[in-house]
Amino acid sequence: MKLRFTKMQGLGNDFVVIDAVRQPFEMTPERARFLADRRFGVGCDQILIVEPSRLPGVDFRYRIFNLDGEVEQCGNGSRCFARYVRDKGLTDKDEIRVETLAGVISPRLGADGLVTVDMGAPVLEPARIPFVSDTDAPAQPLEVAGETITIGAVSMGNPHAVQVVADVDTAPVATQGPLIEHHPRFPARVNAGFMQVVDRHTIRLRVFERAAGETLACGTGACAAVVSGIRRGLLDSPVRVHARGGELSIAWAGPGQPVLMTGPAVTVFEGEIEID
Predict the structure, then answer these.
(1) What per-residue confidence (pLDDT) applies to 28?
(2) How far is CA 62 from CA 51, 82, 173, 187, 218, in A?
(3) Which end of the chain has fewer CB atoms within 10 angstroms, the N or the C?
């Protein structure tokens, strides 16, 4: 079959977006691997599927796939999703409600072209992250390769372990990231964040993502890092997050309140590909 797709990116975190409202499409693991392959397919970090919502009062269903299969949430992808459905005429709303595996989110398109997403309240209870711990303290010790590091465990619909480093440029992302991702205290694996605090309203961030390795940016990772930094008394909302792919603004008013993420979403090109 010939499949129409749109290539998009948010801070260099890139996506293949597929409209399953107007064209029938069923995702399989083989199709996900093919589409994501940068040599034989289109090439992307994740594949985003636009589907009709199954819930009353919700506009769309948003499904996210990487090489491991379907995942719960993607912050940069959610901004691209909102830009896509508006640009493609699937909605004329500035603010939409979107069903994800992690719950309902509410992206809003601004007049400046940026997209703000209500990512919902962060999950801090260890059992729900999931993280093996008997406390929800904002700073948690974690043994990694014989060394004890300190992390903040947060879920933004997907789990994150955030540590503070002196300099993200020299942080052991490539070596320590996979060890944290597969740490037994994170039974669903985890995204590993490396956060440098520049001042109380500014951080630099690198994230080693589950099944993807380090990406140029991670929206949920930025949210988790800011939440972790505020909980540890290191940051004040709002916070500018500088990733290698660009900049996000993250605001959080405290426990029980939603995290608001604002940033760009860009269409790169349209295409059609033959797929089994």
Answers:
(1) 93
(2) 6, 10, 29, 24, 17
(3) C
Banded pLDDT at 143 (limits 50, 70, 90): very high
User: Known catalytic residue: 80?
Assistant: no
CA 272 to chain CA centroid, Å, is 26
Cα 159 off chain centre by: 10
- Give the SS3 label for residue 15: strand
Please tell me which residue in 44, 80, 218, 223 is annotated as part of the active site: 218
* CB distance 242 to 202 below 8 Å: yes
Nearest C-alpha neighbor of 240 from the set 50, 51, 11: 11
Give percent helix, percent strand, percent coil of the chain, each to the nearest 5: 20, 40, 40
Q: Kindly tell me the sign of the dihedral angle through the C-alpha atoms of 165, 168, 169, 172.
A: positive
pLDDT band at 212; cut points 50, 70, 90:
confident
Strand partners, 196: 204
Query: For residue 124, what pLDDT is reported?
Result: 97
Beta bridge partners of 266: 9
Q: Active site residue: 44, 74, 80, 223, which one?
A: 74
Q: Is the pLDDT of residue 228 over 90?
A: yes
pLDDT of residue 102 exceeding 90, the answer is: no
Mean pLDDT of 204-223: 93
| Catalytic residue list contains 223 | no
Q: Return d(Cα 12, Cα 266) in angstroms, integer.
A: 9
Q: How far is it, in rounded angstroms, from Cα 103 to Cα 118?
A: 11
With contact defined as beta carbons under 8 Å apart, do 58 and 97 qualify?
A: yes
Record the pTM.
0.89
Residue 72 has pLDDT above 90, yes or no: no
Cα separation of 44 and 15, whole Å? 5
